[in-house]
Amino acid sequence: MKTVPRDADPATKARAAFERNARSVIACHRCPDLREYIAQVAHEKRRAYRDQTYWGKPVPALGDPMARLLIVGLAPGAHGSNRTGRMFTGDASGRWLFRALHRAGFANQPTWERPDDGLQLTDCMITAALRCAPPGNKPKPHQLATCSVHLAADFALVEPRLRVVVSLGAIGHRAAVKMLESRDWRFAKRPIFGHAAEHVATREGRTLYVICTYHPSQQNTSTKVLTEPMFDAVWTRARELVDATL
Ligand code: SF4
């Protein structure tokens, strides 16, 4: 492991911290039942991916360690990022998310294909409340509580520059709010989840915006509970708020 010199520039220090966080997530065995489950999924595979090697481990954050926008999702999909090893890639939800991030200028391309496809996020980092895909995509409260150690590490990394948090779905939102409150951010009013709801948190003269969106799960997108214009409006607003700090 390389040691970062004390006088290294902020970007180098942030990259080193990002990589430390990633190593800690990947090596985590705090929930043996979940580790067993994701390894089993990786072994059995879905028929469509039977020729692929699944990641089958906890999934670290993805993106820019110097981000001012942090996206907090739910958990890896069993055949999505539990297969690819990259947060929010490998399934239909990711297709929606990266298209929208590209349109809002946070991603250099609208699609992901492979780990070497050149996908890059700028000023944006994606993390999740849980890092191991849970059975039925339903995290249990004690699993979320245990995994919050990794969410805390990601918040700590981006917090000095953070301006906007976008929470994807109610569980991601609750995890983000809990994390911010535990770090002494105070909300002017109760930060209730609702699509496009915007909440303001303050701490020591700083202001942070939390924007909620319905999760771009197939269940929401195929039923038009969430449409692309609704989703785009959230990222356009996030872009405005991030740029307003320039
Ligand atoms: S869910 Fe989180 S805390 Fe539990 S094993 Fe996976 S990475 Fe570790």
How does this model look, in words?
The chain contains 8 helices and 7 strands; from the N terminus they run ααββααβαβαβββαα. Strands 1-3-2-4-7-6-5 form a 7-stranded mixed sheet, with helices on both faces. The protein is α/β, with parallel strands linked by helices and 246 residues long. The protein is globular. It has helices at 10-26, 32-44, 81-84, 92-103, 141-158, 169-182, 218-222, 228-243, and strands at residues 62-63, 69-73, 124-128, 164-168, 186-187, 198-203, 206-213. A hairpin with a 2-residue loop joins β6 (198-203) and β7. It binds iron/sulfur cluster. Iron/sulfur cluster (SF4) binds at residues 25, 28-31, 34-35, 58, 130-132, 143, 146-147, 150.
> Which H/E pattern describes the elements?
HHEEHHEHEHEEEHH
CATH topology: Uracil-DNA Glycosylase, subunit E
The major β-sheet equals: 7 strands, mixed
Bulk shape: globular
Q: Please state the oligomeric state of the protein chains shown.
A: single chain
- Secondary-structure-derived class: alpha/beta
What is the fourth-level CATH superfamily? Answer: Uracil-DNA glycosylase-like domain
Bound molecules: iron/sulfur cluster
- Binned, the helix content reads 40-55%
CATH level 1 name: Alpha Beta
Mean pLDDT: 95
